[in-house]
From TrEMBL:
InterPro entries linked: Cyclic_Pdiesterase, RNA_CPDase
Its EC number(s): 3.1.4.58
Annotated catalytic residues: 52 (proton donor), 135 (proton acceptor)
Protein name as it appears in the record: RNA 2',3'-cyclic phosphodiesterase
Entry's family note: Belongs to the 2H phosphoesterase superfamily. ThpR family.
Enzyme class, spelled out: hydrolase
Catalysed reaction, written as an equation: a 3'-end 2',3'-cyclophospho-ribonucleotide-RNA + H2O = a 3'-end 2'-phospho-ribonucleotide-RNA + H(+)
Sample GO molecular function, one term: RNA 2',3'-cyclic 3'-phosphodiesterase activity
Keyword list, A-Z: Hydrolase
HAMAP family: RNA_CPDase
Motif placement: HXTX 1: 52-55
Lineage: Bacteria, Bacillati, Actinomycetota, Actinomycetes, Kitasatosporales
Function noted in UniProt: Hydrolyzes RNA 2',3'-cyclic phosphodiester to an RNA 2'-phosphomonoester.
Organism, scientific name: Streptomyces finlayi
Length: 207
């Protein structure tokens, strides 16, 4: 299969593959963040519905590349059981990006991310690989206010959330909201992971 490059199409979208916490886990963290929402309104807070755990960031890609991923990602999800995680604590990247930590099946998460990235490459899609650092991005600081992120990260140090299964594999795009405002995401499609009660694991076909 020939390589798919972003420059080969004028119609592009920013796309990534991710897991997402269920609503009860997100609501629990949102309640812990209420004092920070009130105290730091100038921070660029991500919408709760956009919280996700990135497995592979593919960057700007032709819209045609998205369709190439649907069937292989569906097959991968159907052959893998859901992993279990908990959101815990808080931190920041370079005093700019606020995040919540992730605990649980992190070794298996790295394996799943490797499978996803190999699958994407097998589809001929070219992207820049980034080291996987499991986290949930919550907000970004304004350039003139880096202290806010550090302070909020400290306030989350004692947070320990419920355990939850990552029930679906998500293909996500962000083609709206570019610019100075918050980034907006939309599910292109998502696929349920395999039910362990459904019998032996099927073999995953290779692209």
């Amino acid at each position: 299969m020939g390589a798919v490059h972003p420059e080969n199409s004028s119609a592009t979208t920013r796309v990534f593959v991710a897991l997402a916490p269920p609503d009860p886990a997100k609501d629990e963290l949102a309640r812990a963040l209420r004092p920070a929402y009130a105290a730091y309104p100038r921070m660029r807070w991500n919408r709760i519905e956009d919280w996700h755990l990135t497995l592979a960031f593919l960057g700007e890609q032709p819209v045609s590349a998205v369709d190439l991923l649907r069937a292989p990602l569906a097959e991968l999800a159907a052959s893998r059981e859901a992993l279990t995680f908990a959101l815990t604590g808080g931190g920041h990247f370079d005093e700019r990006v606020l995040w919540s930590g992730v605990e649980g099946d992190t070794d298996a998460l790295h394996l799943l991310a490797g499978e996803v990235r190999a699958l994407v490459k097998g589809c001929g899609i070219v992207f820049e690989e980034r080291r996987l650092r499991p986290h949930l991005t919550l907000a970004r600081a304004r350039r003139d206010d880096p202290a806010s992120v550090v302070e909020v990260a400290g306030s989350l140090s004692g947070f320990a959330g419920m355990r939850w299964p990552a029930a679906r594999l998500h293909l996500v795009a962000s083609n709206v909201g570019r610019g100075p405002g918050p980034i907006r995401y939309r599910d292109v499609e998502s696929w349920a992971f395999r039910d362990p009660a459904s019998g032996p694991l099927p073999a995953l076909s290779r692209p």
